[in-house]
Amino acid sequence: MASLRTVLYLRVWLSAWIITTAEDNFVPRAENVHWFSLDFKTTLNWTTKSSNYTYTVLYSWDDSDWIECLYCSQLIESVCDLTNCLKPFDRIYSADVKTEPASMNHNYDPEELPHTYSGNFNPYIESNISAVKITVQAVDERTVTVNITDPLTSIHQDGKQLSIRDVLKNDLMYKISYYKSGSTGKRDIISESSMAEVSQLDAGQKYCFMVAAYIPSRPKSTQQGAWSEQRCTTGQEDVLQELSLGAWVGAVFILLTILIIVVTVTVLCCRCCQRRNKMLHTSQSSAPV
After folding, report:
1. pLDDT (tens digit, 9 = 90+) per residue, 50-62?
2. pTM for the whole thing?
3. Domain spans in the chain, listed from the N-terminal domain onward
4. In this structure, are residues 119 and 182 in contact, taking their beta carbons and an 8 Å threshold?
């Protein structure tokens, strides 16, 4: 019995030792590696378990040799800004997230450390585009000028911060969506210029405009940027058309309520008059002659 208990204790101790050793030798691998890019500011993101290890990102284009990005060496955070490394923009890039010991004095075999590879990414055709800014100005009663200001990127060249127009050049167009105030019908036009004229409008009417960057050379999923804030011209408004569905429902409800009250009061008054007349007629009939 004592020997059996000794064997059980030994097994428990061995299991605990194996688990502790495994934890000490655990090297965390980067997981869920994915790209995120907005206005050509491109980051590589991943998830990992907390540990004493760091991460270094290598990148490659068109299946070339791996290059280490100077901004992404021995990172503690699980994100790397590769914007200044991915040039030119119109190339297919891939990345390798390599796990390394936090202390380079630690003896390790580079071949045994885990690597996690990203999917391919082309900033020029996949970077999301944020909302442009617009102003609208009436030229005459039937024509409006829409002025568009492009978003700035995180890229600097020759001391200048580049806009999306500087990067996309002639590939950048604009989708302009507009409607007459009070109308549910919208119209879309495409402009190649950041100063667009919209004509053949109804004279004296109020129109509202929204604009989004549009890159027809891209895949459909990334062709259009975010919509701008809505901007409207001044003009006459049809009050009835401006009422929303909720306002119409509220107005109808109020009118029905008033009608019901009027009918109810009328009926009650009629009944009171009839009752009074009946009582008067009865009193007159019962009076002695």
Report:
1. 778 889 999 999 8
2. 0.69
3. 26-126, 133-236
4. no
